[in-house]
Amino acid sequence: MNRTKSIVVATLLVGLGLTACNSGNMRRNPGKIYAPDMTYSQAYDAYTYNPNFADSMSSRKPVEGTIAMGHELPDHLKEGDTLAYKSYTTALRFNDADIKEAKRIYDIYCGICHGQQLDGNGPLYAGGEGKFAAKPANFKEGNYLNMPAGQIYAAIKYGKNKMGSYASQLDIKQRWMIVAYIKKVQSENNGAAYTFGASGTTTPAVDTTKVDSAAVAKH
């Protein structure tokens, strides 16, 4: 009799254990999960039907007025707007690591014409023996030495004279990095003072809408 009871009890325990484990991959018992629909929310693949939106599309555009992390505000320059170029600038500031990267990018996209020394004697010109008969701009002399940063930026974006546009090869930040690098070299060759510098290991985000109250108090 005792043996029979033991078998019955053991069978019941095993049955209860199996029943407790078999939840059908879903646990919606009140009190165990606070928000089961959030815990087991339904996922939708990109470009598939989605009943939660009026247009039934799963893939959504970014929220209007927002900027993706790591991206910059779109610039407002229009091709040929010369007056705007002369005053156009950026709040971005670059440290030594940024300028080192800027030189690398410059050497790839600009140095082939303007030269790695910014003297207009790149491989494609090679002292007049290369592909181009006319010498590319020498950033260390003449009008180019003190050319406004916005004009250099516009030339990169839209092209200038025989130079084509690099808007598809360089994003907004990379264009300004090249401008900053050129301006730094120019400042070391009797050009205007360099104003794009920053300290630290990363490029800080500059919020132009805020005023440093401590700095104001000092003045």
What can you tell me about this protein's structure?
- With 219 residues, the chain is an all-alpha fold.
- It has a domain at 82-187: Cytochrome Bc1 Complex, Chain D, domain 2.
- The chain has helices at 2-21, 36-39, 82-87, 96-109, 111-114, 142-145, 149-158, 172-187, 213-218.
- Helix 7 crosses helix 8.
- Residues 201-219 have low confidence and may be disordered.
Helix content: 25-40%
**Bulk shape:** elongated
CATH class of the domain at 82-187: Mainly Alpha
- Which structural class best describes the helix and strand composition? mainly alpha
In quaternary terms, these chains amount to: single chain
Features:
219 residues, 0% strand
SSE topology:
Layout lengths: L1 H20 L14 H4 L42 H6 L8 H14 L1 H4 L27 H4 L3 H10 L13 H16 L25 H6 L1
Sum this structure up briefly:
By secondary structure, the chain is mainly alpha-helical. The chain has 9 helices and no strands.
